[in-house]
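Quick entry between incubations.
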Amino acid sequence: MVNHDILIVGGGLTGLRAAVGLCDRFNVGLVSKVYPTRSHSIAAQGGINAPLTNNPDSRDDSWEKHTFDTVKGSDYLADQDAAEMMCREAAPIVYEMEHWGCPFSRFSDGTIAQRPFGGAGYPRTCYSADITGHVLLNTLYERAVAKGVTIYPEWFVTSLCIEDGQCHGGVVLDIRTGELIPVRAGVTFFGTGGYGRVFQHSTNALINTGSGIGMAYTAGVPLKDMEFVQFHPTSLIGTNILMTEGCRGEGAYLLNNLGERFMQRYAPTAMELAPRDIVSRCIQTEMDEGRGFEHPLGKYIQLDLRHLGEKKIQERLPGIRQISIDFIGIDPVREPIPIMPAQHYSMGGIDVDKRCASEVRGFYAGGECSCVSVHGANRLGGNSLLDTIVFGKLAAKAIAEDLEGGIPRAEEKPLLKLQDSVEATLRKLASPGRERPALLQAELSAVMSEKVGIFRTKEELDQALQKVLEIKQRYRDVGVSSSARHMNYELTGAVELDYMIEVAHTIVLGAILREESRGSHFRLDFNTRNDKDWLKHTIARMGPDGDPAITFKEVAITRYEPMERKY
Amino acid sequence: MIKASAYTFKILRYDAKAPGTKPRFATYRIAVIPGLTVLAVLLRIRDEIDGTLSFRCSCRSAVCGSCAMVINGKIDLACRIQVAAFNTDTIILEPLPNLEVIRDLVVDMTPFWQMYEKIQPYLIRKSPVPEKEIPQSEEERLRIDQYVNCILCACCYGACPVLAREPEYVGPAAAAKLERFVLDSRDDRPAGALEILNNEKGVWACDTLFRCIDACPKEVRPTDAIVGLRKALVKHRFQKLLKENEK
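Done. Structure below.
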């Protein structure tokens, strides 16, 4: 048994920031299923929003304006007090990261460079070329090394231990040795990331299974707003690798097969820089109505950077250029990039308050796996890196406050019981089964992309639900090839698949129930926003029958009355 | 160009935990379509043919640094190399050299990270920090650019001929990381902080054969860093001598 005051799960930006904030005062252990610098935070490209007013066009920007843009972008589903907190913290945490060595790109006056991004009234997205996640994650990892944070790389948490309304830690599989290890902790914090891989077409890394979300849910922690799934407008066709919004921030066009900048018809003011939910719908509509291009890998729309010129592309978007050359054989200096929308981000997640606390004593969550909610029904580009670091920091503060009266006593007994049950699960998975986990996962993700996508209908959602229920049944027959537990990625994949199915179930059920269109959730059969009935969060709790039971929660509205969104 | 409809993949299999077993090549035949990457092939083998195959991967877009290995004799990231890029329909995959194999294509990265931690891989600031950002000119930012791009994939570590004979050598990635901070206009580390590499297991061990530059998938040039650190060390030594003479 390993003991810590605080167990942090996840080595991305949120987990590392929480660890850095807590390690001076508490005995912290950070567990990550990959080496922390492999976490998906690394892949964020375009930038992090903060009203620094460095850009000549953003001199009268402020946290209030940033909050308004965030709330409007959320289609008014964000909790406004929480969004305000995040935006007030934005400038301080960007400066803090800079002071810790983060190599942001610079303007000629030596200040941090800022570019325009979608749905923002001012150019407030701070960046480092198109590798902003990479520089932020490296900086925080460096900080964690400097502070001597105890990190357990390649430790995979299989289950969360909650008994009598309190969290006692979790059971870990040491991927390298194959050993099962109970980790006892008075406080557990999840910064486990999103569930992109529940969808076939996703910009996300292969590790983004959402297992942390499913794990918390099956342990009894409710989830919030799971039906809100962000589809990024511009992913490379075939691989769905992200083509940053920074491309459009720098001035790239979206073109249909008539050579038309079609955004003119949908968002005449914001054009390509309308929020992601809107741009993704426009691209999908253009393709559905026959104005897309054809390719063996599927229909696409063009992302045209050519008019920016080689110098600017090489300076501001070198990674995009390299990815295009490496993965589709196209140099964006000479040819437009073929793109399509793909799942990108989970607005929903573990239901926590603005202190990152869940309803379970000793269990907290932050970043993409959680839902505070600051992004509501649609997140603005540049706000997720912000969310990860701000809420890593605020969670650390909240946990430290909550521990002032003493660290909750975590019990050994429930952990040992859980360890036995995980042991039994792993043994069962290693006995011969009819279903291969990866193939079942492929079926799950295919139906999610096909029927729970940008445009949704009751009929298709019902079909998706039936399929998810069928997959849930078939999961009982899953078996892996080898009973060896070390470096057995098929085995960890099989454990994660169980959680992915639960996550998918909550997404589909939320989408069926929400009979309106708001932000990323668009129902063709209920195609307008309905504030009277649906200005509320959905809360999914695992019922006694194993199905999600949905209840509702008020949205916090402070300064901004819901209005129609126009861009 | 695609050479055949199906390619032969020979993968070096080994399990350090299975006593008595020896490394062996396992052969798989896989249908190939344009654009297929080596990583996509590995995933297909694991997911559909042989679930026991072990390898690391995550981002599949050459940014996370998980999947460094030897591909037809050349070290690279499996996710960014297309199968059709080779002038043959046989692809041989082996684990990254200079690190112990744990299982199949998974190597023990511990020594790599130990070297990384050894050089104090973080900004050291002695001057007070301003309320806002520490100013840095575009030129100053450009100076560290190539080193900032390092994704810690250990391709350079695997390619280094010095590490092959001297496992205690700090290696190219850690040296490049140190140079990234030494060259950062905001860093206040004392010249003495470089002393940690001022020995035969530090920057003086490098044979300057540039294999690390050749292996880097991100166009980082670790040899530049090593040469830069050597110059800084020499300069520091002269300055110290001068000072002693003045006394």
